[in-house]
Amino acid sequence: MSYRTVGIFAHIDSGKTTLTERILFEAGKISAVGSIEDGNTESDSLQEEIERGISIRTTFHTIPWKTTFGEFQIQIVDTPGHIDFRNQVTDLLPAMETAIVVLEAGSVVQSQARLVIEELLLAKVPMVFFINKLDRFGEDYLDTLVSLEEILKGAPVCLFQKNESGKMDYYLGASELFPKSVKEELMAWDDELVLSSWNDPSGQTDFSKIGLRTGPKEAKLYPVYGGSAKTGEGVRELLDLVLWTEPKSPLPEEGIPLLVLSRRTDEELGRYSVVYPNIDTTVALLNALAKKTRDPSVIPSFFSENGFSFVDPETLEPISTLQQGKLVLLKENSGLISYPGQALRFRSNKDELADSNLSLRIPSPFSVVIEPEHSGDKEFWLCRLEELVWEDPGYQLQNKEDTGQLVLLGRGELHLEIGIRRIRERTEKKLNFSSINIAKIELLKKMSHKVALEHRAFEDQKSSGALIAVLEDTADFSKQIAFEVSLPEEVKNSIETSFQEACLHGFYGQEVAGLKLRILSYEMPTGDLHTTLTLLKVAILAGVKELFPSNTYLVGPLTEVDVMVDADHLGVVLSDLSRRNAKVVSIEEAVAGKSHLKANAPAQNLLGFSGALRNMTKGIGISWERTAFTSEFYAVLKE
């Protein structure tokens, strides 16, 4: 039996979860197709997913599938479409053997789908495209194909067509019904295939199907099918196409040949990880590897007592043999570090902190402050938060010992809202939390200012000495100091610490970034060194801060927003965005009376926009937001 790990990716609300549901039905895994509206799909089981109608976490399903060219077990990976949960998508890419990218008919390729396609290209994952919702939009998918070609830098090959009876023909099952030009497209990427077809005038070998089989893996061919996930049209044919194309070859991993896809907590299993074996192996071999390579000074008796503990995801029974590509569950073990998107590894002396304390790969500008209603409940809430962070490393937790507060950082407004709701489930204990805080800094304006810093005290009898320096902006958010003169270590240390302290609070009360202090010269006075260094600190604090009021401005993260809305509601949405000081980038007419709006605004201005959009459009408006805070991507908040 061959296993194939297939990821389903899409922009939010393109029909990804509906497609997964239809696949499970066609494979006989479920007896009836659930719907997002009714909240009874197999993929979206969390309360927040049911209420909001969106996928929040990745789900895994294994289905049997029989084709004319073999029998397979397809491991379907249904990924979240919302940008706040993008880390779950990127963590999965190394283990994806094939990707189904769902596109929506009647629209150009939308933002999140574009981002996913670019990431799949970088990860060299073969892609098969499925244009969904043809039951609603008919043959209106030309714009989709044109924008897809622009992203791929090459023409996708459309392998479906409507016949005279109004039904769809699909190339893999009815290639003889397609024009010769389609066959030529499937071979054109490989000169050897073209030559082979020319040298086979009898046509005994169908080289177009060979091209279709190998082209996606080489990133030279991008096949496109179309249909409807809701009605099931084209879904069976899509699975046959996915299995016909060659999968990505697994990459060899150093150390433990297991790639971690996701982490979960279960009442029966406890903590576990979903892992992808890169090779055929056994638990006995892995335990032998552990004894050979582990660091005995960290957890001396761990492997001799427990070893690896794997469970079959279907039966939940223990297993002792692993097959390459067959997903398994690994129970948590304190001697291992399982971090999503990375290979499993043994804990070593370098890993003094738990993996839940690893920082976010991309620091988040969104946070909430949490306080238990009763101080005695802090440990309870701390455990719940640590469990949340363990399962989804997109969160980050800070424990403020001095104030007793807990700070939860997340990837966006929705991400934090859902995190708070999840930790408050099934408990009567009370929790207070702040509104969402958004990071701000003061950025130094483009400048280069020479300063002479000196401070006198004790009736001008004591001096800090004369420090000549240049304060200038940097190309990023960093704070730097450079010495162009040789100075004693005590003096250098005093200058560095006082400069960093001066940057802690600027004119608007925020940390100042994007500046560099170049020390040109320093005349050190005679007398007590301690007094000199104290006065030098005062001189730098006062002198540097004096420049901030007119030379810094307040900046914060910028949010780009895509809105798909009925044309009837466009006016009220534009009015709301104007009130939030959003800049409209473009408005395009889409099909079926819809408008596609792009805008950007400071992230703090767009808090609550998604909820407001649903209210303004009676629940049918869709928005996608991307927030970033880098030296190239930010919003000016105040002058």
Please describe what this structure looks like.
- By secondary structure, the chain is an alpha+beta fold.
- The protein folds into five domains: 2-178 and 221-244, P-loop containing nucleotide triphosphate hydrolases (Rossmann fold), CATH 3.40.50.300; 258-352, Beta Barrel (Elongation Factor Tu (Ef-tu), domain 3), CATH 2.40.30; 366-438, Alpha-Beta Plaits, CATH 3.30.70.870; 442-553, Ribosomal Protein S5, domain 2, CATH 3.30.230; 557-638, Alpha-Beta Plaits.
- It is 28% helix and 29% strand.
- It contains 19 helices and 37 strands.
- The protein has a seven-stranded mixed β-sheet with strand order 2-3-1-4-5-9-6, sandwiched between helices.
- It is globular, with a radius of gyration of 29 Å.
- It starts with a strand and ends with a strand.
- One of its GO terms (biological process) is translation.
- Keywords: GTP-binding, Nucleotide-binding, Protein biosynthesis.
- It comes from Leptospira wolbachii serovar Codice str. CDC.
- Residues 1-251 form the Tr-type G domain.
Which properties best describe this structure?
639 residues, alpha+beta, Rossmann fold, Elongation Factor Tu (Ef-tu), domain 3, Alpha-Beta Plaits, seven-stranded mixed beta sheet, five-stranded antiparallel beta sheet
What would you say about this model in short?
Residues 1-251 form the Tr-type G domain. Helix content is 28%, strand content 29%.
